[in-house]
Write a structure and sequence with these properties.
Low-confidence stretches: 1-23
Helix content: 40-55%
Strand order of the largest sheet: 1-2
Strand content: under 5%
Structural class: mainly alpha
Largest sheet: 2 strands, antiparallel
Number of domains: 2
Number of helices: 4
Oligomer: single chain
Radius of gyration: 17 Å
Order of helices and strands: EEHHHH
Shape: flat
């Protein structure tokens, strides 16, 4: 079964128009479809989508790490997240855009009137 058939075209975080077969991570159509299936209780199909997504990403051989800092753990997501959790100062670069979108939506509730307390 081709689970990527009929997936919508989407823009990746860099504005590149891509289809389900393209190599990208953020807002990937297979993961979006899988999440919807998961929410509907279709766990087996959701897992198929996730497995297909991971196969696609890992088989591409590309460096998907958007971080521009040259560090010894570049591209090792597990080590990177562990390190950032350890120091707790900031999120890894790859998660910042996703969190910023969530913060922007939350800020809209107060018409973006937030000002840090002094």
């Amino acid at each position: 079964m081709d689970i990527s058939a009929g997936l919508p075209v989407a823009d990746d975080e860099y504005g590149v128009n891509v289809k389900g077969g393209a190599k990208m991570i953020d807002n990937h159509p297979l993961q979006l479809k899988g999440l919807e299936l998961y929410k509907q209780g279709n766990l087996a199909e959701a897992e198929e989508c996730e497995e297909a997504f991971l196969r696609e990403v890992f088989s591409s051989g590309k460096d998907h790490c958007p971080c521009t800092v040259a560090c010894q753990i570049h591209g090792d997501c597990r080590a990177c997240v562990t390190s950032h959790r350890g120091h707790g100062d900031h999120l890894p670069n790859c998660l910042q855009a996703m969190v910023n979108k969530k913060i922007e939506a939350l800020s809209a509730i107060t018409e973006h009137s937030f000002t840090p307390p002094r």
